[in-house]
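re the bet — no i am not wrong, look at it urself. input seq straight from the record:
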Amino acid sequence: MVTLWTYYEPATQREVGAADHAHALERLHAGMRNLEDAIAPHFTDRVAEAEQLVANRDDTPDLDDADRALIADTLQRQRQAIVDRCAAEQLLHGEPHPGNALSTKHGLLFIDLETCCRGPIEFDIAHAPDGVSPLSRIADQELVRECRILMLAMVAAWRWDRTDEFPERERARRDYVNALRACSS
């Protein structure tokens, strides 16, 4: 049998702290920075997919007009705010949240790289737990905040997709819309 995968022995069960996550993201970004010629979509392509989902009532039939407008406006506004910052861009994981990380004796390792994209590292940091961002030595914290709002809007759009099978989807739908409302006030 042949495999191209490397097996990593799981670490003993312990809570992964913000410092561990921040260090793992720094290592990941340093390695991905060396992949200048890698072909990957831009983060704005992922935003466009979320915008199309929200715009198509057949795909998001349960989304009411007020929430549809909130998500659509937030996606457009935040995408533009981030692009206007003209931050340095590189290859990114795309969704380096704790669900896409393995705790191993070699440290935290990220998996599920199908969401790789190009953009500012702050887009990745926005997917990390709250305590990770302040530990980043090179991240623009205001840009992380802008990216976090964009990420909330993207995930909100995905939760309203009629084909979404996320556990506790109904609760998640309300939570993300309420989080977006809080960001808008």
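see?? The mean pLDDT is 90. told u. also The longest strand covers residues 101-104. so pay up
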